[in-house]
Amino acid sequence: MDTHYVFEAETFMIRDIGSEMDRRHPIRLRGGAIVLCKNGYADLLIDTRKYVLSAGTEAVLLTDCMVSISNASRDFLCTMFYFSKDMLLQASAKIESFLFHYIIHAPVYHYPEGAVKSMEHYFVLIKRLAADTENRYRNVIVTNLLRNILLDIYDKLQRNLRVDERHGGYTRAEELFNKFMDLVLREGTQHHDVQFYADQLCITTRYLTGITTKIAHRNPKQIIDAHLVQEIKIMLTFSELTLQQIADHLHFPDQSYLGRFFKKHTGTQPTSYRTQIMSM
């Protein structure tokens, strides 16, 4: 089956989609997306799992999933907010991994009557920013709006699920993966080696690698490094710390090592990245 990669070069995009999406090739998202159904109904296939979209239904799609829409009614209408993987990483910084683990297993939510308005308001703001191409801070603003949306979803999740539902029903591997992700959030700026996390979880590095590869399709080092890259980007964007101060804060040997690490993972030097952000 042919597939298309969607919006690969875009930081974010928002558009209304109707029944014309029905029976087209599936698309693989390089980033993530939030789909809000406004009218009608359709089947939504996420990887191999099928869900029903109807008015007031929201689907949260994380990176690298395969998506297709079929069996759409003639009046089907939804809004799709696409965001890059980098924007998602920035927006989700410090948010507990439980939210994303839950979304993977339950990506579709139906709002109670009247409650969908808050999400519609977010989408109105994002549409305005998408149209305002002269706004030099629009990516930063949209990133913050995405973070607000994720926190709104997390609040909704915590209030609607009982404590025993939120923390029960995981396999041993899923529990260890959640603990690993929370450890990375707490300790990632200080500890960069996989062995530290394996020791904290009382498992071998090989077992930890098997868990993260199966659940997140990345090895532990890739997850730790992605967290560090995100922390560097945040400091370059929102602080006036020197490169040496950032290196010290993140426990790198020196700023040269920091520069090589950042360029390896982003293709650009920290100073160039900061200059680019400041000129936006």
SSE layout:
Blueprint: E1 4-6, E2 12-18, E3 27-29, E4 32-39, E5 41-46, E6 49-54, E7 57-61, E8 66-70, E9 77-83, H1 85-91, H2 97-105, E10 108-110, H3 117-131, H4 138-160, H5 163-167, H6 172-187, H7 194-201, H8 205-216, H9 220-238, H10 243-249, H11 255-266, H12 270-278
Parallel strand pairs: 1-3
Antiparallel strand pairs: 2-9, 3-8, 4-7, 4-9, 5-6, 5-8, 7-10
Report what the structure shows:
- By secondary structure, this protein is of the alpha+beta class.
- The chain contains twelve helices and ten strands.
- The longest helix has 23 residues, at 138-160.
- The radius of gyration is 20 Å and the shape is globular.
- The relative contact order is 0.09.
